[in-house]
Design brief:
- It is a single chain.
- By secondary structure, this protein is mostly beta strands.
- It folds into 2 domains: 29 residues, no CATH class; 54 residues, SH3 type barrels (Roll), CATH 2.30.30.
- The chain contains 1 helix and 13 strands; from the N terminus they run βββαββββββββββ.
- The chain is elongated and about 60 Å long.
- Pfam families: YjdM, Zn_Ribbon_YjdM.
């Protein structure tokens, strides 16, 4: 059984290596080996205590957070349900009851 990845374009199993590239003989698609390695690595998001966070988790805020452009504050102990992980500095997308949609940094929450 071949350990080479299937073609991302046509899902052919007959890929082969050519230097530092993979090549599909059926659709002539070429892609870099480095790109295949990077796409298989998943980014791990951790909370303030080192617990791994996943989409759909519930978290609790561990610090009062001022909301930019507003006088409102997200208080310590506020529970946030059904989070979604995103790329960027603020890596949690969520809705907070009474405040609305916002993004949080994972370093200011703990897994509930």
């Amino acid at each position: 059984m071949s350990s080479l990845p299937k073609c991302p374009k046509c899902s052919s199993e007959y890929t082969y290596e050519d230097g530092n590239m993979y090549v599909c003989p059926e659709c002539a698609h070429e892609w870099a080996m480095v790109a295949a390695v990077e796409s298989s690595e998943q980014r791990v998001v951790r909370d303030a205590y080192g617990n791994v966070l996943n989409d759909g988790d519930s978290v609790t805020v561990v610090k009062d957070l001022k909301i930019k452009g507003s006088t409102s504050v997200v208080k310590v102990g506020t529970k946030v349900r059904n989070i979604r992980l995103i790329e960027g500095d603020h890596d949690i997308d969520c809705k907070i009851d009474g405040i609305g949609a916002m993004q949080l940094k994972s370093e200011f929450v703990k897994k509930a």
